[in-house]
């Protein structure tokens, strides 16, 4: 039997690790991109520590203080940044020159700006997509990958979450999601939302963004609505999140083929990696994590049986913190 495809490890419910203590940035600023965007970034932890870059989800999300707590701040030099159009990056919610490839260029631009030769790359959900794409394009700059909630941005995954699949598990939340869309347009929910989220009337954008964001918030955790990120209730955040996310999904992530990440996963063969996946993740179901593990057999693969998609679920935190501690020893 191929040991790389044996049953994945299961996180035990006892003796779980928690997040590291809160820590504040020791440096921050905006980085010019040579175009219309300026990227907000911050550095946290130990200025002389082992370097890592932490990628937020979405697309369209933003960095937050909890993201600094997956790495030991006494030993790691953490870099975080708001992707184009997100958070404190400028201009907010802009779709201009906003693609997977421009974000990869921004990661490289930040690495050079910070004087880092090679770093650990951390990402969950869309952050895992971007981390994988970056590692495939720049494997010589990646010391390790720590990933959660694997999202390969394939038509199958998008259909599951935005058309038919997750809707069967959350019919009540799905009813709220489809409500703003006339029945005649519901055969292409991403297309219908894209039309509204790019509408010139901000009120039309706002109404669509609220429903789009609520759908993701309603499905993100097995702990229920209390795990829904509070920022989804802020209209400026919701518009940026929904506009950018839908923009990327309507364009297939700007990949050259539907399975680009898996087709190029062989590039990762010499990069140490950790994959932590919630068994009951509805947003990014486990099939994608399993396919990635099959294509990248050297990665450590851990399934958390009592977790969904959220990075803050106890078993996910435990798996990620143990992974970053192991990455420290490389």
Please describe what this structure looks like.
- The chain has 330 residues and is an alpha/beta fold.
- The protein has 2 domains: 225 residues, Alpha/Beta hydrolase fold, catalytic domain (Rossmann fold), CATH 3.40.50; 99 residues, no CATH class.
- Helices cover 36% and strands 16% of the residues.
- It has 11 helices and 9 strands.
- It has a 9-stranded mixed beta sheet with strand order 1-9-8-7-6-4-5-3-2, with helices on both faces.
- Helix 5 runs antiparallel to helix 7.
- The longest helix has 18 residues.
- It is globular and about 55 Å long.
- The N terminus is likely disordered.
Secondary structure class reads alpha/beta
Q: What's the total number of strands? A: 9
**What's the CATH topology label of the largest domain?**
Rossmann fold
Task: Label the overall shape.
Answer: globular
Return the string of H and E elements: EEEEEHEHEHHHHHHHEHEH
CATH superfamily of the largest domain: Alpha/Beta hydrolase fold, catalytic domain
- Please state the second-level CATH architecture of the largest domain: 3-Layer(aba) Sandwich
- What's the CATH C level of the largest domain? Alpha Beta
Number of helices: 11
* Main sheet characteristics: 9 strands, mixed
Strand content: 15-25%
Brief sketch in words of this structure:
The chain is α/β, with parallel strands linked by helices.
């Amino acid at each position: 039997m191929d040991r790389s495809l044996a049953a994945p490890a299961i996180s035990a419910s006892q003796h779980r690790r928690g997040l590291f203590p809160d820590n504040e940035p020791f440096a921050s600023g905006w980085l010019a991109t040579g175009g219309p965007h300026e990227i907000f970034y911050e550095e946290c932890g130990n200025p002389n520590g082992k370097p890592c870059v932490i990628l937020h989800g979405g697309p369209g999300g933003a960095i937050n203080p909890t993201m600094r707590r997956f790495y030991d701040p006494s030993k790691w030099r953490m870099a975080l940044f708001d992707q184009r159009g997100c958070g404190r990056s400028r201009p907010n919610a802009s779709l201009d020159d906003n693609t997977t490839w421009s974000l990869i260029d921004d990661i490289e631009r930040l690495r050079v700006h910070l004087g880092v030769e090679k770093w650990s790359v951390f990402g969950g959900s869309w952050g895992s997509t971007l981390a994988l794409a970056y590692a495939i394009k720049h494997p010589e700059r990646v010391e390790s990958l720590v990933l959660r909630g694997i999202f390969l941005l394939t038509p199958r995954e998008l259909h599951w979450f935005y058309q038919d699949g997750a809707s069967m598990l959350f019919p009540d939340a799905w009813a709220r999601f489809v409500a703003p869309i006339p029945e005649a347009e519901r055969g292409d929910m991403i297309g219908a939302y894209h039309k509204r989220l790019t509408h010139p009337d901000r009120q039309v954008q706002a109404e669509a963004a609220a429903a789009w964001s609520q759908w993701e918030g309603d499905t993100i955790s097995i702990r229920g609505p209390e795990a829904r990120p509070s920022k989804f209730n802020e209209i400026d955040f919701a518009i940026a999140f929904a506009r950018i996310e839908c923009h990327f999904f309507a364009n297939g992530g700007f990949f050259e083929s539907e399975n680009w990440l898996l087709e190029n996963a062989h590039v990762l063969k010499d990069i140490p990696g950790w994959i932590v996946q919630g068994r009951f993740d509805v947003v990014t179901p486990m099939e994608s994590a399993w396919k990635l593990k099959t294509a990248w057999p050297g990665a450590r693969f851990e399934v958390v049986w009592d977790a969904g998609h959220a990075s803050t679920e106890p078993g996910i935190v435990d798996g990620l913190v143990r992974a970053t501690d192991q990455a420290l020893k490389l």
